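@channel sequence for tomorrow's demo:
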Amino acid sequence: MRGTFTGIGVGPGDPELLTLKAARLIRDCCVAAVPVSDPGLAGPVYEEASGSSAYGIYLEKCAAYQIALNAVPELAEKAKLFLPMPMIKDKEVLRKIHDTDASAAEKILDEGKDIIFLTLGDPTVYSTCMYVHKRLARAGYPTALVPGITSFCAAAARLDMPLAENREEIHILPASYGIEDSLHLAGTKILMKAGRKMPEVKKILVERNMDVRMVQNCGMKDEQIFKSAEEIPEQAGYYSLLIVKEGKGGEKR
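structure tokens (generated this afternoon):
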């Protein structure tokens, strides 16, 4: 019998926000898949279960793994499948990498071993997990997803504010792909994945005098909160999320 591939959302950063179901599946799994953005990893690497790892640097850099480890220490003893997940936009290169990742997972699943793929936030929202998950599902392997608390829900809670009330709409936007037109949408705009585009995003928000708040590294030790577009640093970290509300600059309230 084939094993099951399960994408597990570990939440935004605080280990206490890991769900009970996620913790149970992490304890019960045979293999933990660890996404690696470092281009130095040329291909998938499988490492048998042990108390130490030759690829510890990748474990240290993987935020999802560290969050899960703090909640479930037993994770350190699990076998690991290190999967290359470079942060590039070349679709053809990425397709080949994700095909190779899925093939590596198939070999383990064919042995009857369950794999969990750890991902920040929720696996259904801009998650690298789905690139492998979809390929395995199409190939007929058992797959599942375990929801996690999303970064935008956690950020709103940290800011002690609602995301939407009554009939307000919520729009989730990948900020690295241009947001000019989408900012005209009614309701709350959530800007994710700004990355190196942050200077451009900040400029637009300041020019339009929009009501903005940002949480960087929500739930992590180095968390920072910014309560206006002007406060936002242009060199903000990767885990930065902006919440744009109506009301300022003549917008509807």
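heads up for whoever presents: The domain at 151-245 is CATH 3.30.950.10 (Methyltransferase, Cobalt-precorrin-4 Transmethylase; Domain 2).
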